[in-house]
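Lab notebook: predicted structure, single chain.

Context: the supervisor wants predicted structures on file for every construct in the current expression panel, including those that have not yet been purified. This is the next one on the list. No modifications to the sequence; it matches the entry in the shared construct table.
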Amino acid sequence: MLSDIYQKFKGIILNPIETFQSCHDEPLKTTIPYFIAIISVFSCLSGIVNMFIVGVISFFYPGMNLELIVIISLLTGLFSILYSIITAVIGLIVISLIFHVCIYILGGRKGIEKTIKATIYSFTPFALIGWIPLVNIVAWIWLFVLEVIALREFHGVSTKRALLAVLIPVMLLIVVILLAILAYFIIIKTGSVMVV
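Prediction complete. Output recorded below exactly as produced.
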């Protein structure tokens, strides 16, 4: 089983199209162990990085003794691991539903299982390098590119339709974030909430 997970991981990184085509017909239940494996690795590495960062920052904070720094660092690492696992599971469900609605509207009719598989497999680069600060920007881009390829392969739609299925929700999210930031600055500047 571990060698299968490793081979799939390697295939998605080095040759995603061929890998997606080869696992097109496998049931979702065989994809779940892969998801558990990559989320476990990502969560542990992310926890270690966060533990280290908090430990270094705490070391320079006045009045912190070594015992307290170690406790805070360990708790941060543990919380980070749990947080990563919980958000990955919730994120998988929410993101898969959003992408599925979009791909369905654009002609993808192969079922939500294919969309869930596409979302799981597209998370692979994020599991590989997403836990590294600043480098995770590359992981996000790679993740979106793989999501487009996976949706195209699993749903049998054109690249253009798969790209739209990914870009529409991403662009909507960016617009919502920008509007929230704008609203925040308007509230700060005026000191009150504007009623329209």
